[in-house]
Target: Sugar porter (SP) family MFS transporter
Amino acid sequence: MLIAIVIVAALFGLLFGFDQGVISGALPFIKQDFVVTPFMEGVITSAVPLGAVAGTIVAMVTTDKYGRKPMLVLGAIIFFVGSLASALAFDQYILTLSRLLIGVGIGASAMTAPMFLAEVAPARIRGTIVSAFQLMITIGIMVSYMSNAAFGASGDWRWMIGVGVFPAIIAFVGILLSPETPRWLTLNKNADKARDIIAHLQPEATDADLDRIIHEIKESAHEEDAKPAWSTFLKKGILPVTSFAMIVFVLQQLSGINAIIYYAPEIFKQAGFSGQMTQLLATVGVGVVNVALTIVAMYLVESIGRRKLLILGFVGTSISMAVVTGATMAAIPASPYIALFGIFAFIAFFAVSLGPLPWLYMSELFPLRLRPRGMALASVANWFFNFIVALLFPVLLSGIGIVGTFGIFTICCVAGIIYAIAVAPETKGVSLEEIEQRMVMES
Model:
């Protein structure tokens, strides 16, 4: 049962990744049908993260009241409608509005799915299970790149985008058949049902184990029966968690990952690769590396821990971005291949660290009653800076060029190293209730 639930919830990551990645291959063909300036290109691309800000806010105000499951059901419906409308769009404005709707679904589910996974997972494997969400994001990106390559020869961008309706249907059916999380049920005075679900999720647990888990959840919620005020996030024990959860997402976005995800073919073109199919196939390579190293991350996050992995990720992405910047600056025959190596190395380090860890941290660090609002704050920071990068990248590329743009990303990655060393906590193998107790003692 646990495996089935994890697959269904993580499938929302696939929808997230697909709708992020598909625009990279579709844009060159969209520009043949519609009038698209560099700024409009940024608007079409950034509509998804902008919509995700709104989706995060919707999830924040409804997830505690109605539950994690209903929000994921709504997310699947939005994905379906948005993907279908995007594929049928008859001008750039309808396409932008449709992608804005998709963004609402992504924002709502990207906040709710990691929370859902963290709340059904046993502590000993929680990092691996929540990382499954990031794995499915990378699989979704890879699937979108493969869809782009498959329809690239015909230039049919509508089918590239329209493929997204099929996983949306599967996610909708799957989440309808899944239970609500035990923690939400306990919080909402339904501990008996929560106990039954935990027994199914952890069949090895004894009656004493089940009683202990329910007791810990009740204790964690006992002190915060009232709806927490926003000022709670400024309290001594909570403010460091709030700032860390938000800043690590900001640094993730400023590393340059979504510039690569959204604009990979254009980046390969700027790096010196000619031919549209060559650029699309190189993009598929990015997707494959992303998936492979995210699988490695699911092991490493529990073996070497969160803190060391985060530091390693920023070190690796800094070096990789510096290689890309240097390769595009040097006018030598090998420059395109050095840049390609740098981009692949960047994707590898990102996938093994910076990709899954912010989602995992935000689902672990906030106390139960603060979790929806805390995760909303972190998600808004994520999506807002995702929006900024997606909107401005084409403008920066046409202005200061690829060298200047990637130089900025390199500096941001170096800043990430310093921040991770100074601040990043370790939560490996610690129950959500124990993490909460630490913060109570610190406040």
About this structure: The chain has one domain: 2-178+223-442. The chain has a mean pLDDT of 83. The chain has 19 helices and no strands.
